[in-house]
């Protein structure tokens, strides 16, 4: 290469280096893509990646490309907090979706509040949005709503004495507390109250204690992850014939696969994503449910889960807020999220207010029962 050509090449490189980088809108995410909660976080991550790709293929948001900055916290609150700091200080995101678990969410939420970055959690506990924090929202139904749906079904069956067996993780602990409160308000007596740790492999002793409790008429298992599947298998191994309820934290086909035939007859509150073919044509959620399933199956070759649906709704709410705000200013995006009204998603129809950062009511929950290895609505 001649000296003249070399000099010209270096000048061109210097010019490129001096040019400002192309504008892009950065959305952050910290999810449990691996680890014990991966069956929740993996479909959430896949959903976000799919949606970002689709948005960019159509020209981006307000003419700007979208970039997803995704970290895998494995459900570890300490890692989640570290990644939250990185998303804020290094990645300069304008909004964050994530917190697969309640523990990870609660570790990150104070930071997003302090730095005024809108955050939509994908975890279930009511403590995430009660009391309301200005910059924190969530898309899954709360654990308290799940308790209300479950105990309404229990009393509807004429039952009034319940045994509980709860996980001691963040979600299980929170839901247990909510169910104790809801049970009292519903006129249901909790006659047995057992717990299990996240690494326990046999819950037969706890279930035996429940079975031996005089008057117990039904069993409720607040929890998520693999623990509820173990509880379900142990429940069947003991030959218990009581009505058995799980939480929305296991509302996916993977729970049926893990629990096997023992899952037959289990009831739980869930989203309509699990029963798309059984939704009425005029159901406002039928179209978004159908669209999401079709896109996910085309991309990944299998049906999405309820948990991916939480990410689907969070993403669409954030993007609509960015479009409405007309900018990538986090405060303006937060205001637009809070102004969301009547958004029909796969989880429910959302209408946020300054006093309500969930925006769902019990009508978004469907009580389902596992029949013949699949999902059926409870009439």
UniProtKB/TrEMBL annotation:
Keywords: Amino-acid transport, Signal, Transport. This is ABC transporter substrate-binding protein. PANTHER family: BLR7848 PROTEIN, LEUCINE-SPECIFIC-BINDING PROTEIN. Belongs to the leucine-binding protein family. It comes from Paroceanicella profunda. Transmembrane segments: none annotated. GO terms for biological process: amino acid transport. The keyword Ribosomal protein does not apply. Residues 24-359 form the Leucine-binding protein domain. The keyword Amino-acid biosynthesis does not apply.
């Amino acid at each position: 290469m001649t000296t003249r050509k070399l000099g010209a090449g270096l000048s061109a490189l210097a010019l490129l280096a001096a040019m400002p980088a192309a504008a892009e809108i950065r959305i952050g995410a910290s999810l449990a893509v691996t680890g014990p909660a991966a069956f929740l976080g993996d479909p959430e991550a896949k959903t976000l990646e799919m949606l970002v790709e689709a948005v960019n293929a159509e020209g981006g948001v307000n003419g700007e490309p979208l970039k997803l900055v995704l970290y895998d916290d494995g459900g570890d609150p300490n890692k989640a907090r570290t990644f939250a700091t990185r998303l804020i200080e290094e990645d300069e995101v304008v909004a964050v979706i994530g917190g697969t678990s309640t523990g990870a969410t609660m570790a990150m939420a104070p930071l997003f509040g302090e730095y005024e970055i809108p955050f939509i959690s994908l975890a279930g506990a009511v403590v995430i949005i009660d009391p309301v924090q200005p910059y924190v929202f969530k898309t899954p139904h709360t654990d308290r709503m799940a308790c209300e749906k479950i105990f309404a079904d229990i009393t509807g069956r004429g039952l009034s004495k319940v045994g509980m067996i709860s996980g001691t993780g963040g979600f299980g602990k929170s839901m247990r507390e909510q169910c104790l409160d809801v049970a009292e308000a519903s006129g249901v007596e909790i006659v047995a109250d057992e717990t299990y740790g996240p690494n326990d492999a046999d819950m037969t002793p706890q279930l035996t204690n429940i079975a031996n409790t005089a008057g117990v008429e039904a069993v409720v298992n607040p929890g998520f992850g693999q623990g509820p599947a173990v509880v379900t298998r142990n429940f069947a191994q003991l030959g218990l014939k009581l009505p058995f309820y799980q939480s929305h934290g296991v509302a996916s086909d993977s729970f049926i696969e893990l629990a096997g035939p023992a899952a037959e007859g289990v009831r739980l509150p869930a989203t309509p994503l699990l029963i798309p073919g059984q939704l009425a044509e005029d159901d406002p959620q039928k179209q978004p449910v159908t669209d999401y399933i079709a896109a996910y199956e085309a991309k990944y070759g299998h049906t999405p889960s309820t948990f991916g649906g939480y990410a689907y709704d969070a993403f669409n709410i954030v993007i609509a807020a960015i479009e409405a705000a007309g900018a990538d200013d986090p405060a303006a995006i937060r205001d637009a999220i809070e102004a969301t009204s009547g958004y029909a998603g796969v989880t429910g129809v959302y209408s946020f207010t300054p006093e309500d950062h969930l925006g769902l009511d019990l009508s978004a929950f469907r009580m389902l029962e596992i029949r013949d290895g699949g999902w059926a609505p409870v009439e």
